[in-house]
Design brief:
- With 121 residues, the chain is an alpha+beta fold.
- 20% of the residues lie in helices and 31% in strands.
- The protein has two helices and five strands; from the N terminus they run ααβββββ.
- Strands 1-2-3-4-5 form a five-stranded mixed sheet.
- The chain is elongated and about 45 Å long.
């Protein structure tokens, strides 16, 4: 699970860097998009977008479009995740580019995945 989260975060940041290098700064909405769809390759246990009232299947990764979150439900019972029923969730968080002379953030440079509770708004 940690490897997948790390790979996902590195891939998103590489995509952001590629866009920035080509003079295409990322818009704010980029951090709300499904990261699995943004990437060139799909992993086998990505099971799609999860509707609000849908129960996640075991061993699957999902995107929660209403909250712009990535969710994973452990394959086995008793998995020590700290999450409810083996569910772990990460929020996509924008990391803005800071101008040298101002603290105002205008453009997005990267996206970070931060662990959150599934039940958090």
């Amino acid at each position: 699970m940690n490897t997948t989260v790390g790979n996902l975060a590195r891939s998103l940041n590489a995509l952001a860097a590629e866009n920035m290098a080509q003079g295409r700064p990322l818009d704010a909405g980029w951090a709300m998009r499904n990261p699995f769809v943004l990437l060139r390759g799909q992993q086998g246990n990505y099971c799609g977008e999860l509707a609000q009232d849908q129960t996640p299947s075991r061993g699957c990764w999902y995107f929660l479009p209403q909250q712009a979150r990535v969710l994973y439900r452990a394959r086995f019972d008793g998995w020590r995740s700290g999450g409810k029923e083996g569910v772990q969730v990460w929020q996509l968080v924008r990391l803005p580019q800071q101008a040298m002379d101002t603290a105002k953030a205008e453009r997005l440079t990267a996206v970070e995945l931060r662990a959150v509770e599934w039940t958090d708004p």
